[in-house]
Amino acid sequence: MAWDVVVLGGGPAGLFAGVTAAEEGARSIVLEHLPSPGRKLLAAGGGQGNLTRSGEIADFLPHYGGGARPGEAGRFLRPALYAFSNRDLVTWCARRGGPLVEDPDGRVFPRSRRAGDVLDLLLAEARRRRVQVRTGVRVRSIRVERLRFAVLTAPNERPVAEGTTLVLATGGRSYPSLGATGDGYRIASSLGHRVVPPRPALVPLVVERRSFAPFVPCAGVSLTGAAVVLVRAGRAIATGHGDVLFTHRGLSGPAILDLSRRVLPGDVVRVPLLPGSGDVHATEARLGAEIAAHGKRTVANLLQGIGVVACLARALGTSLDLDPATKAAELPRDARRALAASLAAGGDGGHPFPVRSVGGWNEAMVTAGGVALAEVDPKSLESRIVPGLFFAGEILDVDGDTGGYNLQAAFSTGSLAGRSAAQRAGGRSDVPHRGTNKL
Ligand SMILES: Cc1cc2nc3c(=O)[nH]c(=O)nc-3n(C[C@H](O)[C@H](O)[C@H](O)COP(=O)(O)OP(=O)(O)OC[C@H]3O[C@@H](n4cnc5c(N)ncnc54)[C@H](O)[C@@H]3O)c2cc1C
Question: What domains, with CATH codes, occur in the chain?
Answer without folding.
Answer: 2-200+361-437 (3.50.50.60), 205-358 (2.40.30.10)
